[in-house]
Amino acid sequence: MDVQRVPGEGRYAHVEREQRWRLPGRPDGLVAPAEIVDHYLVGTRLRLRRITDESGTTYKLGQKVRPDETSPAVVKLTNIYLSPAEYAVLATLPHDGLRKTRWRLGPESRVAVDEFHGAREGLVLAEVELSADEPPWPPPVPGAVDVTLDDRFSGGSLARTGLVHIGPG
Question: Tell me: the pLDDT tens digits for 124-133?
Fold first, then answer.
């Protein structure tokens, strides 16, 4: 059987449709913190991720492929889980890094809130993963600005830029 393999296609890739907001600050009521370190491997569409939360540490290598290169709202994501040793080897590759704490807006909430560290200190984003036919959500907190279609706020762009402050919306 001759099957052509294409990045972002195949049974292991899943469509991720997100809506994203820039928040004026960290809202009250956040739960379930997780520390996330992302390495966006230079010259690729690959993201190496380490997630540490109350249950331990998880290591993943993901490939994000945009069906529409001009829109950060939808990606086709393929993940594989790694051992700590595999992560350590891949972490030595040239990368653009990003560190953040991810919270849930409440115990039953689908909204994730990311508080960035390092050069992006002070930046707080919220996001929700939407189903294919789900309408956009209203802002999750007062003062939130929808930045779903602003590529400056996608993870890869945030990692690649040296910007400390990104202007409104």
Answer: 999 999 988 8
